[in-house]
Amino acid sequence: MTDIFFDIADLQYVSIDNVSFSFDKTEKSFDSRHEYKKARAKYYKTAYKKLNDDFKKGVDDIIARMNSSLGEQQKAANKARAEK
């Protein structure tokens, strides 16, 4: 169970560390300002989607591990409570 706490902290650290990204091209790299803005928007949309997807996958993995560590009696109680 202690490993799960370390994994939560690691997921937070890695996610915060991965927030720092930037578009590596300048407006002069494109034929028009419109093309530059379009490419930059696409880059950031893709980058934030990947960051979000990676974070959600990490959370889902941790939740699965936490749930697998529960006893059968607790799982049944949780299921009954969720069905209300």
Detailed description of the structure:
The chain is mainly alpha-helical. Helix content is 77%, strand content 0%. It starts with a helix and ends with a helix.
Task: Compile the SSE list and pairings.
Layout: H1 2-18, H2 33-68, H3 72-83
Helix pairs in contact: 1-2
Give a quick summary of the entry.
With 84 residues, the chain is mainly alpha-helical. The chain contains three helices and no strands.
What distance lies between the first and last C-alpha atoms, to the nearest angstrom? 28 Å
> Average pLDDT value?
92
Query: Counting H and I runs of at least 4 residues, what is the number of helices?
Result: 3
Low-confidence sequence ranges = none
Classify the helix fraction into a percent range: over 70%
- How does the major sheet shape up? none
Which term fits the overall shape? elongated
What are the salient characteristics of this protein?
84 residues; mainly alpha
